[in-house]
Every structure is written in C-alpha cells, then in structure tokens.
Amino acid sequence: MSVPTTTTGVSTRSGPAAATDFERGVLNFSAGPAVLPESVLRQARHDLWDIAGTGIGILEHSHRGPVFDRVIEEAEADCRRLAGIGDDFAVLFLQGGASLQFAMIPANFLADGATAEYAITGVWAKKAAEAAALYGSVHVPFDGKGSGYDHTPARSEMTTAPAAAYFHYCSNNTIYGTRWQAPPVSDHPLVADTSSEMFSRRYDFARHAIIYAGAQKNLGPAGVTLVIIRRDLLDRAVRKLPPMLSYAVHAKDGSRHNTPPTFGIYLMGLVFRWIEAQGGLDAVERRNEEKAAVLYRAIDESGGFYRGVARPDCRSTMNVTFRTPSPALDDRFADEAAKHGMDGLKGHRSAGGLRASIYNAFPASGCATLAQFMRAFAAANG
After folding, report:
1. Spatial CA neighbour of 259 closest among 381, 93, 130, 91
2. Among 180, 359, 196, 194, CA closest to 284
3. Which domains does the chain have, with CATH numbers?
4. Under 8 Å CB-to-CB from 164, ≥6 apart: which residues?
5. Average pLDDT in the chain
6. Predicted confidence (pLDDT) per residue in 219-274, tens digit
7. Would you tell me how many other CB atoms lie within 10 Å of the CB of residue 18?
8. In degrees rounded to 5, what are phi and psi of residue 243?
9. What number of other Cβ atoms are within 10 A of residue 327's Cβ?
10. Rg for the chain (alpha carbons), in Å?
11. Phi and psi for 273 in degrees, rounded to 5?
12. What integer is the mean pLDDT of 5-21?
C-alpha cells in the first residue's frame, strides 16, 4: 500500500497493523466504550506526543491545519474503500453519539403531521422512536417488549403504514443480544442505527438512506459518530434548523462546521486501516462468526445451565447474552470471572443476566478462555 503524505510532506500513516495483537492481561468484555485494537492504541500513544514528525501531538493540531486535513481525508477515503461506499453518499464525522441522531433524523426528515416507522426491538430503538414523536407521528410496525426483546421480527410479524417518511431500525441490539440477519424489507427509505456492529460485517449501504453509528463499540472512542447519508437527502430538510442540526451544513463544511472531535476521527481512521489489515470486512465477519459460535456452543451444550436471551435465529455476533439458573449465580459468575481476568460480563442494568461483548478487536483466544470458564463454572455450580 502506498503511503500518502500530508501537505507538509510528512506522512500521518504508519504501516498496517499486525493480523493478531493481544498483550494485555485483562479480557475486556465491555459493551462500550469497548475494546480497541492494541496496535491502534500503541500508534495513538506515539501520535499523542508527535504525529508525523511534526513535533506536535494529534490532540494539539489545528482542525483546519494541513496535518488534520490529511487525517480526515484519509479517514473518509479508507471508510469508503473499506465498505464500498460510493460518491452518492456523504460520509460525516459528527458528535453527540447515536442519541443525537435519534433527534437529528426526524428533525431533518419528519415533517409536522407526517409519519415515520420505528421497529422497536430494544431499549435504543425505543428511545429513537420517542425522540421522533416530538416531531411527527410514529407508527410502530413491531414492538418486541412482550417477548422480552428476544428476537427481531419476520416480515409477517410487522404491520406497515401506507405512507411514511422512512423506516428506522436498530440493526444490532446491544442489551438483548439480537440482530437483524438482513435489513428489513420496506417500501419506505431505510434508516439504520448500527452502533454496536458497524463494520463487523458487510452491509448493503445501497439499500439504505442513512446508516449511523456511535464509535465506541467497533470504530473508535466515545465522542465521534459516523453518519453515512444519501446525498440527495441533504437538501430535503423539512424545516429550518440550527446549523449544527443540519446534515446539509455538515456535509458542505466537510464535518468541520465547528471544531470536530479530532482525536476520535484520527483514531477511527486507524481502526479502518486495522480492519483492512485483517483482510477487510469479509474476513472480519468470518472471524466474528467463529468467535460468537464458541460462546453459543458453550451455552447450548450446558444442559440447560445457561440460557441464551436471544432466540437462536436472531443471535448477535457482537453481544452474547445469557443467564445462569438464578440472579445470584449470575452475580457470582461475573465476580469469579473478574478474578480470572475477564472484565465487563454483567448484563445491562435494565436487563440483568450476563453479556459478553466481543467486538472486532476482541481476540478469538478470549472467547475460548471464557467458554472454558463457563464449562468449569457450570460443573461446579450445576
């Protein structure tokens, strides 16, 4: 791979990361902010002090200077190449997390009196629908609350509105460990919150109007949000908005209408290159499926000691959710696992149970370690 240089003549890039890198002694199963590639963290540690031989660290460079010009240009180019995103989409690096997108999307595209569809498959999908209801009507084609959010719906389970501005769904439900195996079929433009699985598998961007993700699961640190939006939508805002809420303004100003989260964008760029070094999205998707299979096998072969939260046909490869026979044993499991160097296994406070988040950067060896512990714990407590 050729090494681009900045306009000052010095490179902002390092060589590709190693295919495997895991040296720290603690396995981080946190749902987010979450595990990052160690080679990325090592490069960031260097560039915090001095990026590209400039004598100034990435945190201190002007967001309008030549070094950051190259950082953001490379990040966008790598993002597009990695996922095959064409020029008919704008790639935006914004702030406010997915939660701000919950408001920005209807603010821009849901007119007063109009309807949008929101499939409610978990907590974050519900919060998105609640934000949209501040702007217009919300039709809920599916609400999984009655089944404990244990699955994403088949088409036969959904109702539809005859006219809707868009259909919003959360592709992977972090708290309950479910995912849509394929995008839903809808007559309305698709909008996807992919925060907990962005770039963990290949995705059909062409079928979507907007795909967005908070970075702190698979892409980088908290504080930066990746938004991929069809360019033809940029001039279709249904109401006048403050500039910071306008996709058109952010696109026109190259994600620099105000001072952007420069470190987050820089780190996201490193993660894009790390994914490429692993073999790209197809290779990463295969490895994620293999990692998740190790843990689901430990659940399914436990003789009922462990119960998966998600229905098998809707299981996430990013967030493996399960329970032991009792909440007390759930707590003991998490406590004992922590003593063995496995951190972050308690389930979300709203759902309880246990959850292993195994994002792109989580090592396959860590899944084998947890599966071995699961079998030992079941034998000792069954």
Report:
1. 93
2. 359
3. 66-275 (3.40.640.10), 281-381 (3.90.1150.10)
4. 114, 115, 116, 117, 139, 188
5. 93
6. 999 999 999 999 999 999 999 999 999 999 999 999 999 999 999 999 999 999 99
7. 12
8. -55, -35
9. 12
10. 21
11. -70, -35
12. 43
Residue 31 identity (one-letter amino acid): A
Tokens of 97: 């997390």
- Say if residues 229 and 209 touch (Cβ distance below 8 Å): yes
Residue 250 corresponds to which tokens in the numbers above? Answer: 């952010």
Residue with the two structure tokens 């046909």 = 313
- The predicted-structure confidence for 279-316, as pLDDT tens digits, reads as follows 999 999 999 999 999 999 999 999 999 999 999 999 99
Three-state secondary structure of the chain? CCCCCCCCCCCCCCCCCCCCCCCCCCEECCCCCCCCCHHHHHHHHHHHHCCCCCCCCHHHCCCCCHHHHHHHHHHHHHHHHHHCCCCCEEEEEECCHHHHHHHHHHHHHCCCCCEEEECECCHHHHHHHHHHCCCCEEECCCEHHHHCCCCCCCHHHCCCCCCCCCEEEECEECCCCEECCCCCCCCCCEEEECCCCCCCCCCCHHHEEEEEEECCCCCCCCCCEEEEEEHHHCCCCCCCCCHHHCHHHHHHCCCCCCCCCHHHHHHHHHHHHHHHHCCCHHHHHHHHHHHHHHHHHHHHCCCCCCEECCCHHHECCCEEEEECCCHHHHHHHHHHHHHCCEECCECCCCCCCEEEECCCCCCHHHHHHHHHHHHHHHHHHC
Residue 16 has pLDDT above 50, yes or no: no
- Which residues is 50 bridged to in the sheet? none
Whole-number pLDDT of residue 13: 52
Closest CA relative to residue 217, chosen from 76, 319, 366: 319
- Write out the catalytic residue numbers: 124, 193, 217
Distance CA 249, CA 358 (A): 36
Phi/psi region, residue 219 (left: phi>0; alpha: psi -120 to 50; beta: rest), is alpha
Distance CA 160, CA 92 (A): 30
Q: What's the rounded Cα separation, in Å, for the pair 136 and 63? A: 36
β-strand pairing of 319-323 with 307-308 = antiparallel
| Residue 188 tokens, joined | 């309305």
